[in-house]
Amino acid sequence: MDLVTVKTFDSYFLANIILGRLQSEGVECYLKDETTVTMDPILTNAIGGIKIVVKKENEASVLAILQGYDEEYLNAATCPQCGAHEFSYIAKPGITNFLTAITTTLFGSYALATDYVYQCGKCGYESERLPGFDTDENNEERN
Ligand SMILES: [Zn+2]
Questions:
Q1: Mean pLDDT estimate for the chain
Q2: pLDDT reported for residue 100
Q3: Could you count the other beta carbons within 10 Å of the beta carbon of residue 8?
Q4: How many domains does the chain have?
Q5: How far is the CA of 23 from the centre of ligand 1 (A)?
Q6: DSSP letter string over 93-130?
Q7: What is the Å distance from ligand 1's center to 53 Cα?
Q8: Burial bucket for residue 107 (CB in 10 Å: 0-12, 13-18, 19+)
Q9: From the CA of 93, how far away is ligand 1's center (Å)?
Q10: pLDDT value at 36 more than 80
């Protein structure tokens, strides 16, 4: 059976949220490297994060579902600066990946990765949290 990676995550919580949603839609999928990343978060970048893998023959349909999740998620956010619904999720350049790996390991809060930011496509506002959109992941971190 051929398995392909359809999405990777730095966050254990987000990976499990997406996995759960896919499974509830009847998609056969698994998390790969979940244990490694959870036990030793500094390895996340080295091994490429937690991966959602699916059967090769389901790749196209699962990618379409994931695309829908992303759009739904981003369109739900309102920019606090200009009120637009045009957020995209972009990688931050620079050495933050390495520093984040160390910091999050020291404090044991590996879900607080800052490698990516949400950026408003209209005014350029950036945030590590999607504004006005609480996820289970955020709730988890607050507790
Ligand atoms: Zn804006």
A1: 79
A2: 62
A3: 16
A4: 1
A5: 34
A6: PSSHHHHHHHHHHHHT-GGG--SEEEEETTT--EESS-
A7: 34
A8: exposed
A9: 20
A10: no
- pLDDT at 112 > cutoff 80: no
Query: Are residues 98 and 142 in contact, defined by beta-carbon separation less than 8 angstroms?
Result: no
Segments in the chain forming alpha helices (H) = 12-24, 34-39, 44-47, 59-75, 96-107, 136-142
Q: Which H or E element spans position 6?
A: strand 3-9
Q: Is the dihedral of CA 117, 73, 87, 90 positive or negative?
A: positive
What value does the CA radius of gyration of the chain take, rounded to a whole number of Å? 16
Residues 115, 100 contacting (CB under 8 angstroms): yes
Q: Residue 32's domain spans which residues?
A: 3-142
Helix axes 12-24, 59-75, angle to 10 degrees: 120
Q: How far is the CA of 69 from the centre of ligand 1 (A)?
A: 21
Answering whether pTM is above 0.90, one says no
